[in-house]
Amino acid sequence: MTENPLRAPALAVFANAYAPYSNFKVGAAIRTDDGTVFQGCNVENIAYPEGTCAEAGAIAAMAASGARKITEVYVVAEAPLPVPPCGGCRQKIAEFAGKDVAVTMATTTGQELKMTVAELLPGAFGADHMADT
Ligand code: THU
Fold this sequence. Notes:
Layout lengths: L6 H8 L11 E7 L4 E5 L12 H12 L4 E8 L9 H10 E11 L4 E5 H4 L13
Parallel strand pairs: 3-4
Antiparallel strand pairs: 1-2, 1-3, 4-5
Bound molecules: tetrahydrodeoxyuridine.
């Protein structure tokens, strides 16, 4: 099977993760509708709650460039099992990705688990819930 093209950029940014407190590095790569790939890694802080996730970093880079539509997500960590995005990151991904967008969770050794945004965040809070009816 051919390697997912987002794996290499996710692994490259994984190497730059700043995780001295958890010792758990994460890398994320996201593709946008025009094919551009954005990378993010987790960046921790001595004030622990101030750390940010890899997915949040990639999304921030994407939004800063002006892009708004995620078409694919890849997350990699050095873990025994593919690591799913945390709850907050699921909502952040859903802000810019359709329900059918694929999120591949992977380990550095090559295990992969692929799910859709809707599978990761069923019953998501969305714009419809705020519509003035
Ligand atoms: N982390 C991510 O960056 N993404 C995930 O999908 C799961 C968790 C980070 C947050 C923290 O720096 C470390 O992993 C341990 O929770």
